[in-house]
Design a protein that fits this description.
Length: 200
């Protein structure tokens, strides 16, 4: 049976972005558990503004839709801008209208991460991420994470704050576990959980 596939979308164009670092941390954990991870971050999500009248998708839009269509689970990470997700990520999610005939993200587990200086604003952005995931028929996993904007990550995709790392571990593991249950029932989910434990 093929590995679980995860699409990881990061909504920041900023160099040294904490939201991108948090996404890479989650992606690395998923990879260690045996998942195939396709990460689209920053410039890779710099799509033209969504226009429902456009009939010819750009190459970047085709890559996005292909990654989401093939995925069993999705990770979303965004900086908080004025209490919501970044426009970059919201526009990318608007482009998923191209998956309408296939049910958008129907049946896929979705893990959401926001980054903010202010916990209230971060919680609002996290709520908008989860609401968009559910509107696209995805299954937002129970754990959602607000990461403080001053959290440090190492060049090898590790988090220096144990509490934040633990929360990112949980949201990643839930995406993998739910994706495993969708793919192959309980036996596959047990295999995924076992792989996660072996990766620790």
């Amino acid at each position: 049976m093929r590995p679980i596939r995860i699409a990881a979308l990061g909504g920041s164009l900023r160099s040294g972005s904490v939201s991108t670092a948090a996404l890479r941390y989650c992606a690395a954990r998923a990879h260690r558990a045996g998942a195939e991870v396709t990460a689209l971050v920053g410039p890779e999500l710099a799509l033209p503004p969504y226009d429902p009248e456009t009939r010819t998708p750009s190459a970047a839009e085709r890559r996005l839709l292909a990654a989401l269509s093939a995925a069993d689970g999705v990770l979303l990470s965004s900086p908080t801008y004025h209490g919501g997700m970044s426009g970059l990520l919201k526009n990318a999610l608007d482009h998923t209208e191209g998956l309408a005939t296939n049910g958008y993200l129907d049946g896929r587990s979705v893990g959401c991460v926001s980054v903010a200086w202010n916990e209230v604003a971060g919680a609002s952005a996290l709520t908008s991420l989860r609401a968009s995931a559910q509107a696209l028929r995805g299954w937002a996993v129970p754990m959602g994470v607000v990461v403080r904007a001053d959290t440090e990550f190492t060049p090898d995709d590790m988090c220096t704050d144990p509490r934040t790392a633990r929360r990112l571990d949980i949201v990643t593991d839930q995406v993998l576990e739910f994706a495993g249950m969708r793919r192959g029932g309980r036996d596959t989910a047990v295999e995924v959980v076992t792989a996660i434990g072996a990766a620790l």
